[in-house]
Amino acid sequence: MQMASEAESKHVVDIDAAADHDTPATAHAKARILDACEQMDIDALKTLAVSPGGLLSDALRSQSWPILLGFDPEGTGDTTEKPPSWRDMERHKDEDQVKLDVDRSFVYYPNDNSQAELDLKRTELSDLITEVLRRQPYLCYFQGYHDICQVFLLVLPPAARAPAVARLSALRIRDFMLPTLNPALSQLRLIPSILDAVDPELCAHLSRNEPYFALSDTLTMFAHNVQRYSDIARLFDVLLAREQVFGLYVFTQIVLVRRAELFGHDEPDMLHFTLSKLPQDLDLEVVIRDAARLFAEHPPESLRAWRSISSASALKTTRDVRACAGQSLEDGHRFFDRQVRELEWADRQKEVLQTVWTNRGVILTIAVGVGAFYLRRTSMWSVIVPWWPTRLGGS
C-alpha cells in the first residue's frame, strides 16, 4: 500500500508543479480535463482526448484513463471484501510465453533507467500480466500484449494498473485474446473497405496483399512499433477515448499519408514490408484529426466488410464508449463465450464442407443411385424408362 500511495502522490505533485509553467491555453485545457474527471464525464474526455495535445500529461492520464475504461481510480482499493491474492491462484497456461516476452520489454522507453530499475519494471510488468490472466483464465495471451501493458504500467499508479488492464482485455481487445486470431484477421479486412471508400486507386494498388501488414499495430494498439513514449501515450489517449474500431481508422489514415511512398513500390513483398513499419516522423496530431474526419465521413456501418463482423466482437460492443464503460468483466466473459461458440460453429461448417468436397464423387454416385431407386418405384419412372431408349434412337 505504501508503494501505491507514493505513486499517487507523485502524480498529484506533477500536476501542481506543472501548473507554474502552463500557458493560458494549456491551463484551460488542464482545468477542463480535471473537471471532466471530477464529473466522470466520458463524453467530455472523449472530446478532449481527440483535441490537440490530448490528455496532456501522465498525471492527468492516471485520472482519465480509468474513467474511460469504466472504473473509479480513487476506489480501486476500497472494497470491503478483498479478493484472494492472485499469487495463490492456478497458473495460466500462457505464463511461460509471458516470461519470454517480458524479458524483451522496455526496448524503446524509458531510456533513462538503470539496469536495476529496468529489472524492477520487468518484474512489475510480469506481475501485472500474470495477475490479469490468472483472474481471467479464459483469456488467451498473445505476443504483443506485453507492449500494451507496459504503457499502462508507466502511466498508472500501481493500484489502478490491474483493474485497467483487466477491463481493457475483457471489453476492448477481447477479439485478440480468443483461442484463434481469426476475428483479429477479420478486423483487418475493414482497412481495404475504408481505403476503397476514400481512395479506390490506392486500395487497388495494395489489393495484391492481404492486410496482414496491419496486424502488429492493431494487435498492440501501436505500442509495438511506436518508439517515443510521448507518442504512444498520446495515441492511447484517443484509442481509449474512442470506440475500438477507431484504431483501424488511425492505421488507414497513416496509409493515406504514405500514398506517394507506397506507389513507389510494385512488389507485394516490398509493400508488405513498408506497411508493417511505422514511420517515426508522423505528425500524430494531424493523423488523429484526419482519422476522426475519416471516421465521420465513412462510419463502420457504411463499410461492406462490417457485415461480417460478429455482433459479439469488441468492435461492435464498444461502439458506444459510455455503454462500454458501464459493462462488467462478466459481460466481457459472456461476449467471449459467444465468440468462442461462433468460432466452433464456423469450424464445424468448414469441416463439413471440406468433407463434402473431398468426397464429392462418391456422394454424387450415391445420390444418383438413391434417386434412381426411388424413381423406379413411381409411376413416372415406368413411363420414363421405356421412353428413354426411344429418344436415344433405340428400338
UniProtKB/TrEMBL annotation:
Claim: Repressor is one of the keywords in the record: no
SMART domains cross-referenced by the UniProt entry: TBC (SM00164)
InterPro entries: Rab-GAP-TBC_dom (IPR000195), Rab-GAP_TBC_sf (IPR035969), TBC20/Gyp8-like (IPR045913)
One GO molecular-function entry: GTPase activator activity
Chain spans, region Disordered: 71-94
An annotated GO BP: endoplasmic reticulum to Golgi vesicle-mediated transport
Sorted UniProt keywords: GTPase activation
Superkingdom of origin: Eukaryota
Pfam families: RabGAP-TBC
UniProt biased composition (Basic and acidic residues): 79-94
One CC-aspect GO term: endoplasmic reticulum membrane
Boundaries of every Rab-GAP TBC domain copy: 55-243
PANTHER family: RE60063P, TBC1 DOMAIN FAMILY MEMBER 20/GTPASE
Name of the molecule in the record: Uu.00g023650.m01.CDS01
Organism: Anthostomella pinea
